[in-house]
Structures are given as structure tokens and as C-alpha cells.
Amino acid sequence: MQEGTFSRTAQRVAIRRAAHQLLDAPRVLDDPLALRIIGSEAEDALRSNPKEGHAFARAFRAFMAARSRYAEDELARSVAHGVRQYIVLGAGLDTFAYRNPHAGLRVFEVDHPDTQAWKREQLRVAGIATPPSLTFVPIDFERQTLADGLGQFGFDAGAAAFFSWLGVTPYLTREACMMTLAFIAKMTAGSSVVFDFAVDRALLNPGQRMALDALSKRVARYGEPLRLFFDPGKLQHQLKGMGFRRTELLQGKELNARYFKDRDDGLLVRGAIGHLMGAWV
After folding, report:
1. Predicted pLDDT at 154
2. What angle do CA 112, 173, 280 make, to 5 degrees?
3. Which among 138, 150, 133 has a CA at the least distance from the CA of 98?
4. Nearest 5°: CA angle at 172, between 105 and 228?
5. Cα(98)–Cα(27) distance, integer angstroms
6. Run means of pLDDT, 10 residues per run, the chain, 281 residues
7. Counting beta carbons within 10 angstroms of the beta carbon of residue 206, is it exposed (0 to 12), middle (13 to 18) or buried (19 or more)?
8. ∠ CA(264), CA(265), CA(266), 5° rounding?
9. Dihedral (Cα; 194, 225, 255, 36), 10-degree rounding
10. What confidence score (pLDDT) does residue 205 get?
11. Backbone angles phi, psi at 140, to 5 degrees
12. Residue-level pLDDT at 88
């Protein structure tokens, strides 16, 4: 992202989550704060002219909703097994911390300092209170390690933790991404991470490549070019080599079977340019 300004892609993701609240029923992700946090101007524009009805926008919106729902489902399972630390990496305008249903769960929102400052202003204007269970952790992933950043803000590295990392890895260098995953892999047993990633272009069909190229051009205009792509099978092998004992790969068909089955509005995850991965220590 460009220095001195917030992440435009984080803003676009938040608008799509908000659009999901308005346009889709039933909702895959029920987020009563999604419209408020994007700001009144963006909310009014979305309500008056959603511009989210064409096929690509609908499919992308479905993926945004599904990946957040998957992360929150897996977090709930971790909490049920005793995890009490949740780290939202690249939090953007994620609202979980402000509607957290889990008593005793401490949430750490990690993000670039500029984006985090913008979010805090969005929260202030929207009148969304910051709960005492939330800690803001400003980190530039390209310049600071996750371990150093979290260590300054009361994170207990000796206790299990759940990490979500959504909409971030495609914009990182491989070194920064793998360093973060290696840190999580060395956490206490019971720790886990859910993240999404972009698929190697060589593994896509012509239609999927066109979709990827269109997305690449759009985010590059925001100053946030796509830089990192993975072969899903090789990535799973790498994760196990780091020390993760189990992984779960979710492509469109798995997400559709889990979250979009028997809908009558046609909302589905389509294409294969992005996948979700869960990994457990």
C-alpha cells in the first residue's frame, strides 16, 4: 500500500461486506456493524446505487463473506477448546472485535499504522465503541516482524492463539508471508491460522486468468499490486514442513457446499483465483 494513506483494498472489501448485508438473503456473514463502519457517505452510495449486481461483483462478494464466516467459525471452535487470544492480521475494517460474543477472548487487531489510524477515525465517527478486550497493534509487515510487534502489546506467546489473515498475503513479498506463517507454526499446540491466497496464474484456465488480470489492474491503480501467488498443493506441503500438523484447503466448490447450498438467489463463489487455507499447530 502507499505510505501516508489507508488501504484502498481494505475499504473495497468492507464495502462488499456491507453490500452483502443489504443485497443477500439469507446472509452468510451476519454483520450488523458492516454498514456503519464504512461511513455515512459510502453507506448512502451503496443504498442508493449498490452496483453489486453483475456476475463478477456477486461472486467476489460471496468470497468476501465466506472467508470471514469461515474464519469466525474456526475461531469459535478454537475458543471452545480453550483458546483465549485472537489475532486479526491486516484487520482493515473488520468488525468482529466490536461484536465479539466470546467471553474472555482477547482480540489483537494488527494492521499498517496508516490503515489503523483511518479505522479508528471511522469507528469514532460511527460511534462504535472500542471494547476493553481489544488491543490495536500497528505493524508494517514489510519492516517489522509479527513477533516483535505483538510482544510490545501484551500478547502471550506462551499461550495458544487463533490467527485470521484475510486479504493480505497476495500483497506481500514471499519472505514476509512465510516469516509470519513460520512464527505461527512455532506457537503453542492448539494454535491455528486461517488465511486466503492467490493461485499461481499458470494453474488457471483462460477465463480465470482474465479475471485475475482484471483484479490485478484494479488493485494496482490503488497502489497495492498483487505480488504473491501459490500452488495450493505445494503450499500445503510447505505448511506441514513448517510444523503445522493439519491443513484444510477450501476452493470454491467446498465453500459453496458449506455456505451457499440450496440458495435460490444464485449467490455462489465462482472462479478459482483465490482459495482459503486453515492450518493447525
Report:
1. 94
2. 80
3. 133
4. 120
5. 19
6. 72 94 95 97 88 76 96 98 98 98 98 95 97 95 83 95 96 93 97 96 83 82 88 97 97 95 92 87 98
7. exposed
8. 95
9. 80
10. 80
11. -100, 110
12. 98
Q: What is the pLDDT of residue 7?
A: 86
Q: Which residue has the cell 502507499?
A: 2
Locate 80 and state its grid cell: 471452545
CA distance 116 to 19: 22
Are 171 and 224 in contact by the 8 Å Cβ rule? The answer is: yes
Nearest to 37 by CA among 97, 110, 116, 119: 119
* 8 A C-beta contact, residue 37 and residue 93: yes
One-letter amino acid identity for 86? Y
Would you say 111 and 140 are in contact if contact means Cβ atoms under 8 Å apart?
no
Q: What angle do CA 185, 188, 189 make, to 5 degrees?
A: 85
pLDDT attached to residue 57: 82
Distance, in Å, from the CA atom of 111 to the CA atom of 137, rounded to the nearest integer, reads 7
Cell numbers for 120, please give them: 479508528
Written in H, E and C, the secondary structure of the chain is CCCCCCCHHHHHHHHHHHHHHHHCCCCCCCCCCHHHHCCHHHHHHHHHCCCCCCHHHHHHHHHHHHHHHHHHHHHHHHHHCCCCEEEEECCCCCCHHHCCCCCCCEEEEEECHHHHHHHHHHHHHHCCCCCCCEEEEECCCCCCCHHHHHHCCCCCCCCCCEEEECCCHHHCCHHHHHHHHHHHHCCCCCCEEEEEEEECHHHCCHHHHHHHHHHHHHHHHCCCCCCCCECHHHHHHHHHHHCCCEEEEECHHHHHHHHCCCCCCCCCCCCCCEEEEEEEC
| Residue in 55, 56, 57 with CA at minimum distance from that of residue 19 | 57
